[in-house]
């Protein structure tokens, strides 16, 4: 694939990402508005029932109305404040001071008219009167291909430790450098990536960290979590380097860095570095490794 074709593909992906984010925000706003409308209608229905009560209804009905008013955070009329029920056996009276708001609310839900025309995705009420957010179940469950070598056991390798430490460093607010300036430096080494905004790179990092922590990615980061986006970027950079007569091997992933180090210093020395990267072993080497992580973020964030 030539440079123009790769650049066009990246542009199309970014445009799809923008449209996807806009559609997600629209669905989220519609869902929120629908929930607010449903809650408002429920409260209005309860308030209407409370207003219609005369205070001389059956004690059970008054208790239900009072429970509903309390559950909906409405003012409870004085006539409901302390109902007294005559005991059929001895004529004494008993004051009721405890209420089952869940049972009462569930009982009243069937009596409220829901005439609001809601989008299909927002009709998710259960009989127990609990509400679920359908957007929670629209999360992306497949990881981006570029992080596959650093998941599971791969997260504990030297390459994995370096990869995730740089990702976490991007969100740490390190005072050694200004985040956006550092990302621009990383993007500036290649013409093919100069048009990418630092905010998008930050979103890519957030999406990958979210997958590592939760096993899925939210719709908010969908545009930066496309399956092969990282591989497309790497291919774009390699094409650019070759077109300018530069060695593509200057562009290394963490996995490639680990392989090169192992080739130079051997397995035993690499294992020592891995322990230092995992904050184990020689304290001096640990400190040096932390400085290397910070420098990697400064100069080559996007290459990770």
UniProtKB/TrEMBL annotation:
Q: What are the Basic residues biased-composition ranges? A: 13-28
Q: Which domain of life is it from?
A: Eukaryota
Q: Where is this region: Disordered?
A: 1-36
Biased composition of type Basic and acidic residues is found at: 1-12
Record-given protein name: BZIP domain-containing protein
């Amino acid at each position: 694939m030539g440079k123009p074709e790769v650049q066009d593909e990246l542009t199309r992906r970014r445009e799809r990402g923008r449209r996807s984010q806009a559609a997600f925000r629209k669905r989220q706003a519609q869902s929120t508005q629908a929930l607010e409308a449903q809650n408002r209608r429920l409260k209005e229905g309860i308030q209407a029932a409370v207003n219609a009560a005369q205070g001389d209804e059956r004690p059970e009905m008054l208790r239900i109305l009072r429970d509903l008013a309390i559950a909906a955070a409405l003012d409870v009329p004085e006539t409901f404040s302390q109902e007294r029920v005559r005991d059929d056996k001895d004529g004494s009276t008993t004051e009721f001071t405890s209420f089952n708001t869940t049972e009462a609310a569930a009982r009243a839900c069937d009596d409220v008219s829901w005439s609001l025309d809601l989008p299909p995705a927002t009709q998710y009420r259960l009989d127990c009167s609990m509400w679920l957010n359908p957007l929670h179940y629209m999360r992306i469950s497949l990881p981006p291909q570029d992080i596959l070598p650093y998941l599971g056991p791969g997260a504990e390798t030297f390459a994995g430790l370096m990869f995730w430490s740089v990702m976490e460093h991007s969100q740490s607010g390190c005072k050694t450098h200004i985040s956006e300036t550092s990302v621009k430096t990383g993007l500036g080494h290649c013409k093919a990536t100069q048009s990418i905004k630092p905010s998008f790179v930050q979103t890519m990092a957030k999406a990958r960290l979210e997958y590592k922590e939760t096993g899925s990615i939210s719709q908010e980061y969908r545009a930066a979590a496309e399956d092969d986006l990282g591989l497309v970027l790497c291919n774009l950079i390699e094409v650019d380097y070759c077109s300018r007569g530069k060695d593509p091997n200057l562009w290394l992933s963490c996995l490639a860095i680990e392989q090169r180090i192992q080739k130079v210093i051997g397995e035993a020395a690499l294992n020592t570095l891995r322990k230092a990267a995992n904050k184990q072993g020689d304290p001096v080497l640990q400190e040096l490794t932390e400085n290397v992580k910070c420098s990697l973020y400064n100069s080559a964030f996007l290459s990770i």
